[in-house]
Amino acid sequence: MFEAYAAEAAGAAHGAHGEGGGLPDPMHQFEIKRLVDLDVFGLDASFTNSGLFMVIAVVLITAFMLWAMRRQQMVPSRSQSVAELSYEFVANMLRDNTGQAGMPYFPFIFTLFMFVLALNMLGMVPYSFTVTSHIIVTFALAAFIILGITVLGFIKHGVGFLRLFVPKGVPMVLVPLIVVIEVISYLTRPLSLSVRLFANMMAGHTMLKVFGAFVVALGFLGGWAPLAFMVGFTALEVLVAFLQAYVFAILTCIYLNDALHLH
Amino acid sequence: MEPEAAKFIGAGLASIALVGAGLGIGTIFGNYLSGALRNPSAAAGQFPNLLLGFALAEATGLFGLVVALIILFVF
Q: Which of A91, A113, A145, A206 suits A196 as a labelling partner, its CA being 20 to 30 A distant?
């Protein structure tokens, strides 16, 4: 299907402009390439470009944090300020949403936020790979977050955690209906959490690629209009990359709050 | 109708979901601005909520876009 569509797009471009070239496939950038073939007990555990960029993200974050905090001073240097800023940012987010009870989970939320942020930002570098534009990556993240939070809720409250599905002050007649709705809404959380991040990253990068193809297709004379649009849109994409990491972390905080305090 | 044509029509219809995203984002920023002009001192405190609302509203429209892309590239 990919080839058929690409050929069709190329044909359409050919007809419109009369010269060769054609639009490249915007989905090509999401292709997973095997870098090192690995086979673990019959499972394909190859080291791919996706894995490579995850390693780069983790190394970057760790190296930056260690480097920024190498000399801790009362009056922070510039690099130390950045590290403290990110710490304060996530700590405030967690405190505002879960109160003091959520602070033991700060390392988890901080890691999550920095990891997703680094992956999104690395994706904005030309010719790099956006790990978060694959649903399987974001879904695995989201599924384990919700699973962990559910287990945490049962540990904290025992069977009482099920009260989460029965909001206070609901008339008895409506309870069976409300419980069903609440359970469904709880079960769709990993889905909405993962699809939100994945859809934003994939749609943004596809759009950038499509407009990049317009620049080439319209040539030296007409290409400036989509190029100007691309500059603005790239700025928006950087904002979205940050925003989606923020939303991912803040929703995790909100779900964590549900498990810690019920409602 | 050819199946190929139906595919493209379906993808186009799925993209209509972005109308809702546009309406939602417009509502959020419009209401934030009118609220901020009434009470500028409270505006800064609500900025994180503005961004959160923007991201949530945009995402719902993008769900539709994902459906369109799935129709185009998977089937």
A: A91
* Total number of domains in chain A: 1
Chains A, B: CB contacts under 8 A, how many? 47
Enter the tokens of residue A18: 């009369």
Residue A15 included in any domain? no
pTM above 0.90, yes or no: no
- For residue B63, list chain A residues with Cβ-Cβ distance below 8 A: 195, 199
Q: Which residues pair with residue B28 across a beta bridge?
A: none
Of the candidates B51, B59, B62, which has its C-beta nearest A246's C-beta? B51
Q: What angle do CA A251, A56, A25 make, to 5 degrees?
A: 80
Architecture of domain B9-70: Up-down Bundle (1.20)
Q: Tell me whether residues A196 and B62 touch, CB distance under 8 A.
A: yes
Tell me the residue range of the domain where A195 lies.
Answer: 25-261
Q: Cβ separation of B51 and A243 shorter than 8 Å?
A: yes
Residue A30 placed within a domain: yes
In a domain, A11, yes or no: no
Q: How far is B67 from chain A (nearest CA, A)?
A: 10
Give the separation between CA A196 and CA B33, rounded to whole angstroms. 25
Question: pLDDT in tens for each of the 263 residues of chain A?
Answer: 444 444 444 444 443 333 344 567 777 788 888 888 888 887 888 888 899 999 999 999 999 999 988 888 888 888 899 999 999 999 999 998 898 988 999 999 999 999 999 999 999 998 889 999 999 999 999 999 999 999 999 999 988 888 888 888 888 888 889 999 999 999 999 988 998 999 999 888 988 888 888 888 888 888 888 899 999 999 999 999 999 999 999 999 999 998 998 86
Residue type, A62: T
Tokens matching residue B39: 């009470």
**Contact state of A199 with B73 under an 8 Å Cβ cutoff:** no
**Angle, helices B17-38/B47-73, rounded to nearest 10 degrees:** 170
Give ipTM to 2 decimals.
0.77
Supply A230's token pair: 């691309």
d(CA B49, CA B67): 28
Question: Do A243 and B74 lie within an 8 Å CB cutoff?
Answer: no
Cβ distance of B59 and A246 shorter than 8 Å = no
Q: Which residue of B has its CA nearest to A134?
A: B66
